[in-house]
């Protein structure tokens, strides 16, 4: 018995991941003076910027996975015989 991905939940998850990334960017833009990413000077970045970088990279990877699965499901539906 094959298990299929629920496409409505997948599309909803993709939209939520886009919203999370946009909200994180909004938060990061307002809190920018408190963050230091380590790209401006040869010193070490602080712990808060390391956490922010990790969260942002996690959200980007999560979004990439959701978009990839959405595209696969879309092609399955379009080319279903």
Q: How would you describe this protein?
A:
With 81 residues, the protein is an all-alpha fold. The protein has a domain at 26-78. Helix content is 69%, strand content 0%. The protein has two helices and no strands. The chain has helices at residues 7-30, 47-78. The chain starts with 6 loop residues before the first helix and ends with a helix. The model has no long low-confidence stretch (mean pLDDT 77).
Strand elements, count: 0
Mean pLDDT: 77
- Helix share bin: 55-70%
Low-pLDDT segments, ≥5 res: none
**Strand percentage, roughly?**
under 5%
Report the biggest beta sheet as strand number plus sense, adding barrel if it closes: none
Distance between the termini: 19 Å
Q: Taking Cα atoms only, what radius of gyration do you get, to the nearest Å?
A: 18 Å
Q: Determine the number of helices (DSSP H or I, runs of at least 4 residues).
A: 2
Helix/sheet category: mainly alpha
Summarize the helix and strand pattern as letters. Answer: HH
**Overall 3D shape:** elongated
What structural keywords apply?
81 residues, 69% helix, mainly alpha
